Amino acid sequence: MQVQIQLFATLTDYLPKDSRGKAINLEVDPGTSIQELLQELQIPQDLVKLIFKNGIQAQNKDILEENDRIGVFPPIGGG
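and the corresponding structure tokens:
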């Protein structure tokens, strides 16, 4: 099944260079969790602060469904 993921700020480093700043479509197995998706992309868990699934805040354990849109944000610092 297909899901769409978009990584923001420093997390874009975990996408291919031509995909940075864009949402990408990925094929995942039914029953895949958000955490498993992030592990597949080799994104360290400590770099993830907020996850949104279809515009609603989500948790790592949430199971993905066909055509879900996932947004992942790192901790943001300011000064």
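(Above: one complete record from the training split.) Strands lie at 2-7, 24-27, 50-53, 56-57, 69-73.
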